[in-house]
Give the backbone structure.
Amino acid sequence: MARLIRESFAAIEPKADELAQYFYGALFVVAPDCRALFPIAMTTQRNRLLRALVYVVQMVDRPDDLAPFLRQLGRDHRKFAVVARHYDAVGVALIEALKRFLKEKWTHEVESAWTAAYGLIAKTMREAAQAETEPAAWTATVIEHRRLTRDVALVKVRTDGLLPYRAGGYVSVEVPQRPRFWRYLSPANAPRGDGQLTFHVRAVPGGWVSGSIVSHTRPGDVWRIGPSMGMLNVRPTSARRRLLMIGGGTGITPLLAILDDLSHWKRNPPVHLFFGGRRPDDLYALDDLHRLAMASSWLTVTPVTEEGALAGGDRGTLAHAVTQRGTWRNHEVLVSGSPPMIQATIAKLLAGGVELERISYDPFTID
């Protein structure tokens, strides 16, 4: 099944954008009421679908690693009031889209493989949603908003009731200025007893939500926040393992939360953090990281810039800088940033001999 799914997806991946468009068109025909669950502009939603498909294809022969991700998706989708028939409609639309784009390569065996795989996906998500006892979403009030740079803002919120999450995780967020436009953001702090979450948000070109958060969020705004998700975390049981952390731009935020958590441990694993950006100004959290490193013998910080130089830093892409510094085969690796940065970095690490099982990343943290 894994081989058939990977081979068939590789055949249509060059037309993945068209497939995503067709899929949502078919979904809204099969289940018209689903349209109200999504924003008018569907570009980000289509990108998420593609990243989800890529992730499932990569992990299809690793069910023990894939299942936690699917259970998190199932719990998260409760905020949309998703019911069983919606899962059925998604399955029909997905099979129809795959069949249309695979054409003569759509065989009985390929259809059976995708049908069985989606059946397992839907079953895992539905069961997780049905078993969940926590709220489908939390309300949170903005208590602070300030610019860290021209295009990056720090936003602090306080949730109405404690939202359970692990340092390194991420949540979906809906802001009042952009209803139904859910975006994934990672808290930059470890869990606190007062319900405060700190987010770092960069206004990306054309970003409806990110631009609105950076420019128009005000104290008193009420956000909706979905359940915690994510595969990036460090547990006390792994304290003896060396850690390699790689963060690009605001992708540093889940790693900041993990470092915040680690700073309260009695015994810490050695951590080497690479923090990268195009220019020195993009490394907005570097001063805080240097201060933490000076107070923490277990932490080493290496800044990386593609343009311009920093004292003690490396030049080039993160993927290049990390692999030039060592092999990292005996490290647990956490990667966070844009999808292209994650893909390039993981490819370099694998080529350098790091086992895939040692690498953790999240497919949705940057929209």
